[in-house]
Amino acid sequence: MSADSNTFESVKAVILSAHKSSTSEEKVGFYNRWAENYDQDVAVLDYRAPSLAADCISSHFSSVREAAVVLDVACGTGLVAKHMKKLGFEHFVGVDGSEAMLGRARESGLYQDLKQCMLGEEPLPVRWGSFDVVVIVGALSAGQVPISIARHLCNATKPGGFICMTTRSNQDNLEYKAALDSELRKMEEEELWTCLEVTEVKDWERAVSEKEDGYISGVVYLYKKL
To answer: Domain 46-225 belongs to what architecture?
Structure first.
């Protein structure tokens, strides 16, 4: 077995162990333990969602980036902010359920403010209608953040601001994705926002499920608040 495959197998084992967590406390505990190795582990997975989301936002954002305020929901260690910083964005507020992840985000020096919040169980600890961009990457999937968070993301965004979300399209997440798609369409019908882009990405990240090989696919959504 090569060193690379051994590393991948160890990362796979870590992620599959998270699926055994059922309560919110157990899930937060998992992320608290994972925080130290998170960046290295997702690099092994060739996890592209943070850069794909940042690029999607960048391609549509025409205002002054240095002045824009970005809310990074489920910010983790700060991977999304890292990519957005390279694209000219400078002001970030991060929210996450894991104090250890927030600690790593704090160390990055990218965020002006960081807040702990159990996403989906309590309101986002921010003022509604105050962000130019709201982004959530990685957390919209089965067993993590409920789809009801989509309305909170919209509420936090300024009129005319952007909301970027990602989810996976692998077998384990198909039911969740279908429910998410339905909610996003419903919000568009309610004229809360308009869809700017839905991008299907084939090589999203390396598969860790026992049912799948190679790479799984994923989706980037971009909406504009009305």
So the answer is: 3-Layer(aba) Sandwich (3.40)
Question: What DSSP string describes 50-95?
Answer: HHHHHHHHHHH--S-GGG-EEEEET-TTTHHHHHHHHTT--EEEEE
pLDDT at residue number 106: 98
Domain ranges of the chain: 46-225
Which residue, 159, 169, 174, 161, is CA-closest to 219? 169
Q: List CB contacts of 126: < 8 A, sequence separation 6 or more.
A: 71, 93, 95, 115, 156
Predicted structure pTM score: 0.95
Q: What pLDDT does residue 6 have?
A: 60
Length of the chain (residues): 226
User: ∠ CA 181-184-186 to the nearest 5 degrees?
Assistant: 110
Which residues are registered as beta bridge partners of 193?
Answer: 225
